[in-house]
Design a protein that fits this description.
- The structure holds two protein chains of two kinds.
- Chain A is built from 23 helices and 16 strands.
- Chain A is of the alpha+beta class.
- Chain B has a single domain, classed as MetI-like fold, CATH 1.10.3720.10.
- Helix content of chain B is about 70%, strand content about 0%.
- In chain B, helix 4 packs across helix 15.
- The longest helix of chain B has about 35 residues.
- Chain B is flat, with a radius of gyration of 26 Å.
- The N terminus of chain B is likely disordered.
- Classes of the chains: A alpha+beta, B mainly alpha.
């Protein structure tokens, strides 16, 4: 990709070839517009330019008081029940009656189109637009995204995928939004001003704000556990230190009854990153970066995984990437579902609504010797699969402000009238309100309301579990304990072309080799050569690109 | 088979058993039994996954929970059709089925017409430019245009979000053309000559002589095309923008391969939905069914058609 792009400034025919290469989507895009800034390097995308950006002023929404307020560090707001009064956060219809196109990922079965979907029609009426959405399954988005870019057929609103030459793609095709959102300007869109400041950092490239972040709590993941299975054996849910964890896991494991402690190999591996104090992705010391694979702590973790696998506390299919780990957890086959995305809480609740024995709990993570809590590895604060939604480049300022008003509507915070409609649709049709005041989706609602508008703009994540007010307390307490111990990944908000192009393959090869080592198919001594292979194929290039961006700013933000 | 039996009878009648060639000896019962076991096992290997898909699609939640999220071989006491009800009620799957059937029928007919025409042209050595065009076709077997150029072409033809984009770009499969051309070349040249003497035009020869003699190869190639159209999700993913126009294969893919969660983040209560796994399997069953129904009718031509093409190809 890089080679094709470099050549494109020299040979016209090569430029044509770059456009023709199936994978060279971005190179093709660049060649169509011309190679003004030389798309390969992040020359204009560095930390000093980016840190000069005026981030949107944060202005918290005050219309509703959460039962358990969040913190500036990143603990989410929590509500025990759905608020009784649902204030309107957007007073006027945001749209101008025109057609607005968009494209985003969908995790659900496709909903019926606007013609047969009363919810969608109602949403259009409320927003005053005719919303036309391309919905693409999550596994197919990385394929679809480059074709749409290469076809130069961009929708108005596009959920972004971080791809090769991302900064120059943004520069050529997408609208910088500084004048509309930078500093106090964002106050024209109060629901966008309510998005956490940390989440905006992922939208900054080339010294501009390029979109609306899709915010997620910085906690990122939970260590889910089946409290009922722990209680059955009288085990501590937050074992202190590695030894105690192993003892608990052994107690939980009983292959004859088809019971194991962990399901997929990646889960205890992620747990060990914290227990053994590995870097959160990268560790930064004086402008120098060390990847977690290169750390001594990582070797310790691999060692631990080898002994865990030998002990048999992992499900026998732990190395199958398609293992249905959620189902295994629901069925009680595995007791710990470590470091799984934290919005999963709601899903485990609804999956097990008819199982009275099911009790969901959370495991706090202690360091190796159990003396104190291990540092939590914080997430990026944005939705991983599509960190932000960008606007197609246009000179029409009225159009931009109209689109931002629409996104402002979609970002309406939890508990508002707009939020209720966006997630639960029309009362009596898409949802019913139960005795506790919680909206419950009807079958129609389950089919109709899954339009992926939540990946164009979303409210800050809020803890709320319909029918289980105590869950708000459990989760809020857990976040309040873990988030303050958190360490950040120093490369969040930085762009590395090597990470976007080469690392996926390099990392997969590395992980495959590690899996072999854990299963004893390769000797432990192989680890060093695997690390150096990863370094030469992707790691060193990533480090260089990240360090350049860090140094220009004299350290991380 | 018949010829072999007759031969056995003839030689067997006149000579001693000991003089029979090895392959005509009476089969050893033990070997027969082992063969039976081997065939049974391989048949089971093919049938059991299908059976498991069917059983899982009919299983209720308790049975699946007991299987710890895995597939089941027996749907349990209560057969549950709730997965099928849930899928067919929303209207998305039923519409996708109609779309897929339409695309498959129209696409297969057009593909067959185009392929037969091209193959006939290339099979007659004296046709205009037959050789260069044949090279072009062979080239298409070796090189494919790649994703982005195909997308740009479809876009410039204004076929985006149009069902024709699922048919026209894949209308003619070069491999099928070569198979069919080989079949046409096998037909006796005398037939063509006598028809020509009787004053038949090329088109008449194609429609009145060649095609009626080529039912076997048409059936096989038709099945290839039909299965191709039925299973194609990728072009629909790239070219079809409105989800309302999706064919079955793409709907299937979003349900099954993407492991979309029905329920899930922030959606709240989803009580009453059948288990995800049985819904996935029910969609699989629905998707396999039409091809399964068509297959037996074409199967009799299958072995013959493929063989003839393959030897000459």
């Amino acid at each position: 990709m890089t080679a094709a792009n470099r050549n494109s400034t020299v040979f016209t025919r090569r430029r044509l070839l770059a456009g023709a290469g199936g994978l060279a989507a971005m190179a093709g895009a660049t060649s169509l517009v011309g190679c003004g800034k030389g798309g390969a390097g992040p020359s204009s995308n560095n930390a000093s330019v980016n840190s000069a950006v005026k981030l949107p002023t944060y202005q918290a929404y005050t219309g509703l008081k959460p039962d358990l307020p969040g913190t500036e560090q990143g603990v989410d707001n929590a509500f025990r029940n759905f608020p009784k009064d649902r204030p309107k956060s957007v007073q006027e219809k945001p749209g101008d009656g025109s057609t607005v196109t968009g494209m985003a990922i969908i995790y659900y079965a496709v909903p019926p189109g606007p013609g047969k979907n009363s919810y969608w029609k109602g949403l259009n009426d409320r927003m005053g637009i005719d919303l036309q959405l391309q919905m693409v399954g999550n596994a197919d988005y990385p394929t679809k995204f480059p074709t749409v870019i290469a076809g130069n057929d961009l929708p108005d609103l596009l959920m972004m995928n971080v791809v090769a030459n991302f900064p120059s793609l943004l520069d050529k095709r997408f609208q910088p939004l500084d004048e509309y959102l930078g500093g106090d300007a964002v106050k024209d869109y109060p629901n966008l001003a309510n998005l956490p400041t940390a989440s905006w950092k992922s939208t900054i490239y080339n010294g501009h704000i390029y979109g609306i972040p899709i915010p997620r709590g910085v906690i990122g993941a939970y260590n889910f556990l089946r409290q009922d299975l722990f209680e059955e054996k009288g085990l501590p849910t937050s074992p202190k230190g590695y030894e105690e964890l192993i003892n608990v896991c052994k107690e939980l494991t009983d292959p004859k009854r088809r019971r194991w402690a962990f399901s997929m190999i990646g889960q205890p591996a992620n747990l060990l990153t914290m227990i053994n104090d590995e870097p959160n992705g990268w560790r930064e010391e004086g402008g120098k970066l060390t990847h977690r694979y290169e750390s001594d702590e990582y070797k310790q973790s691999v060692n631990d995984l080898i002994s865990m696998w030998k002990m048999g506390i992992l499900h026998p299919n732990a190395f199958d990437p398609a293992q249905p780990f959620k189902n295994l957890f629901n069925a009680g086959t595995v007791a710990i579902n470590a470091m799984d995305g934290y919005p999963g809480w709601a899903q485990y609740r609804s999956d097990n609504a008819s199982n009275p024995k099911f009790k969901l709990g959370l495991m706090k993570v202690y360091n190796r010797d159990g003396s104190e809590l291990a540092p939590w590895h914080l997430g990026s604060g944005v939705f991983g699969a599509g960190p932000f939604c960008a606007l197609k480049k246009t000179d029409n300022k009225d159009r931009i402000t109209m689109l931002l008003r629409v996104l402002n509507y979609l970002a309406a915070p939890f508990g508002t009238e707009e939020y209720l409609y966006r997630l639960y649709g029309e009362e009596g049709v898409d949802h019913k309100t139960n005795d506790a005041g919680d909206p419950v989706l009807t079958k129609t609602g389950q089919t109709n309301t899954v339009i992926p508008i939540r990946y164009l703009a979303d409210a800050p994540y809020t803890l709320y579990q319909p029918g289980h007010p105590e869950d708000a307390d459990t989760q809020h307490k857990y976040q309040s304990v873990e988030v303050p111990t958190g360490i950040k990944n120093p490369t969040v908000g930085l762009f590395s072309n090597a990470a976007a192009t080469k690392n996926a393959t390099a990392d997969k090869n590395f992980q495959d080799a590690i899996n072999d080592i854990i299963q004893g198919r390769k000797p432990f001594s192989d680890l060093d050569s695997q690390i150096s292979t990863w370094r030469t194929t992707a790691g060193d290039a990533m480090r260089k690109e990240y360090e350049e961006q860090l140094q220009k700013n004299g350290g991380p933000k | 088979m018949t010829t072999l039996d007759q031969a056995t009878a003839k030689t067997g009648a006149g000579s001693r058993a000991g003089k029979r060639p090895v392959w005509m000896e009476r089969p050893n019962p033990l070997v027969q039994f082992l063969k039976f076991i081997a065939l049974l096992v391989s048949a089971a290997l093919v049938i059991l996954p299908f059976w498991s898909v069917l059983a899982t699609s009919l299983a209720d939640k308790q049975t699946l929970d007991a299987a710890a999220g895995g597939m089941v071989m027996w749907p349990g006491r209560g057969l549950s059709l709730s997965a099928y009800q849930a899928i067919l009620s929303g209207g998305v799957v039923t519409r996708a089925l109609v779309i897929s059937i339409g695309i498959t029928v129209i696409g297969t007919l057009l593909s067959l017409a185009a392929t037969a025409g091209l193959a006939y042209w290339l099979s007659r050595s004296r046709s205009f430019a037959a050789r260069p065009v044949l090279m072009l076709v062979l080239g298409a077997v070796l090189f494919s245009p790649g994703l982005i150029p195909s997308y740009l072409l479809v876009k410039q033809l204004n076929l985006l979000d149009n069902w024709w984009s699922l048919i026209l770009p894949v209308l003619v499969n070069a491999f099928n053309v070569i198979v069919m051309r080989a079949f046409f070349q096998e037909l006796p040249a005398e037939l063509f000559e006598s028809a020509a003497i009787d004053g038949a035009s090329s088109l008449t020869i194609l429609t009145r002589i060649v095609l009626p003699l080529s039912k076997a190869v048409l059936a096989v190639i038709g099945l290839f095309y039909a299965v191709g159209y039925w299973n194609a999700f990728f072009n629909a993913l790239i070219y079809i923008q409105t989800a309302d126009k999706w064919p079955m294969a793409l709907v299937l893919r979003t349900y099954v391969v993407n492991q979309t969660t029905i329920g899930g983040e922030q959606i709240g209560s989803t009580e009453g939905l059948p288990p995800q796994l049985s819904m996935e399997m029910a969609i699989l069953v629905i998707a396999i069914l039409p091809i399964l129904i068509v297959y037996p009718f074409i199967q009799k031509h299958f072995a013959k058609g493929v063989m003839i093409g393959a030897v000459k190809g």
